[in-house]
Amino acid sequence: MAVTEDATAIAGELTHLRRAIHAEPEVGLNLPLTQQKIVAALDGLPLEVTLGSALSSVTAVLHGEAGGGPAVLLRADMDALPVAERTGLGFASRIDGTMHACGHDLHSAMLVGAARLLSARRAELPGSVVFMFQPGEEGHGGARFMIEEGVLDAAGKRAIAAYALHVASAELPFGVFSTREGPMMAAAEALDITVTGRGGHGSQPHHAADPIPAACEIVTALQVMVTRRFDIFDPVVVTVGSFHAGTTNNVIPDEAKLEVTIRSFSPESRALVRDSVVRVVHQIAAAHGLTATTEFTGSYPVTINDDGEAQFAAGVVMDFLGEDRYHPQGNPMAGAEDFSYVLEDVPGAFIMLGACPPGVDPATAPFNHSALAVFDDMVLADGAALFAELAVRRLTS
Fold first, then answer.
1. Same domain, 173 and 317
2. For 177-213, how does the pLDDT look when each residue is reduced to its tens digit (9 = 90+)?
3. Same domain, 74 and 156
4. Does residue 171 sit in helix, strand or coil?
5. Of 167, 190, 111, 24, which Cα lies nearest the Cα of 390?
6. 138 SS3 class
């Protein structure tokens, strides 16, 4: 049977796996329940399975029997988010305050499906496929840990190409794939700022060193910096998402704390914005006779698709599933992805897949990370089939 027919035949089992993972979501690098489900789903397949040491990852390698050709890597993330689910689904999260709000449960099930489809075609496979099941994508850098533990060379040779699929609960129509050449998703930085002064009575600010006006000035100065320092065709985003200072109306506090997210779309702008933000913060604080500390607490690089691999993936979608199933991604997305670490070492492509339920308007549906985000299981078969087809065609190209 064709890959699509085989994928349709196992769609029910993939749905069962996806819903089991969805009902017991786990956050971070340690996902023992999810890891157990993935290992059980791969049991009986002709795979070399390795579990991570620093994290509960699963790496599975399929060696084709039609020659010792190159290796291709396929990746799925497995972790959930600290979000209290409000979808009302029959298989909704049973873990309080935790939800698969970004669709990683679908990614995991699709990659298991690809492993099954490709295992059935092992005799014709002229190379190896690495199945990368990764924890800790949501801010924990799980891909970096897996790279350090050797996932890119798990087949005994460095993978020549890498692909990841990511579902979207809104924006993209159901069943439509999308990617682009070059930057696909932003670099992300998390920055903590503390402005320190000297507390005092609110009625006598001249006897204190008030950090609040300086911190307010920093917020507005950062926005001015973005408009004056950066090319509008290579944009950056600086958002102060948290501002905390003081305890009551008549007390000047000792310090004000800001939490900032920074997004950029090129390595050059990423380096410049990191330097510029720190300089603005410290110099404004100094101008007010205050001090400031800045600490980057987490970051992901720009997710940059290889031009050739993005063109290849788009061509496979259109040839394999139909031209109407592919929409070019016009602009990069401002979200961030730690598949970026893989793409720094291996040429590849990050591909979006619309999973908005039929009958729901993608323009108004709750988007990924929402407590109301709903992803349709009907995309699982096509996602698994595309994963498999990308690997087969890349190994035989």
1. yes
2. 999 999 999 999 999 999 999 999 999 999 999 999 9
3. yes
4. coil
5. 111
6. coil
Same domain, 325 and 203: no
Number of domains in the chain: 2
- Please check whether residue 258 is in contact with residue 280, taking contact to mean a CB–CB distance below 8 angstroms: no
Tell me how far apart the alpha carbons of residues 270 and 49 are, in angstroms, rounded to a whole number: 37
What domain range is 208 assigned to?
A: 187-300
Which amino acid, residue 218? I
The residue among 285, 300, 315 that closes a domain is: 300
Same domain for 366 and 334: yes
Given the structure tokens 């930057």, which residue do they identify?
183
Q: What is the pLDDT of residues 335-392, one digit of tens each?
A: 999 999 999 999 999 999 999 998 899 999 999 999 999 999 999 999 999 999 999 9
Q: Which residue has the tokens 């769609």?
A: 11
Q: What kind and span of H or E run contains 222? A: helix 211-229
CATH number at residue 94: 3.40.630.10
Give the dihedral sign, CA 134/139/143/149: negative
Q: Which amino acid is at 190?
A: A
Cα separation, 361 vs 86, in Å, equals 19
Structure token digits, residue 142: 């799980």
CA angle 371-376-377, nearest 5°? 120
Q: How far apart are CA 30 and CA 124, in angstroms?
A: 36
Last residue of a domain, one of 273, 300, 327: 300
User: For the domain that residue 269 is a member of, what is the CATH number?
Assistant: 3.30.70.360
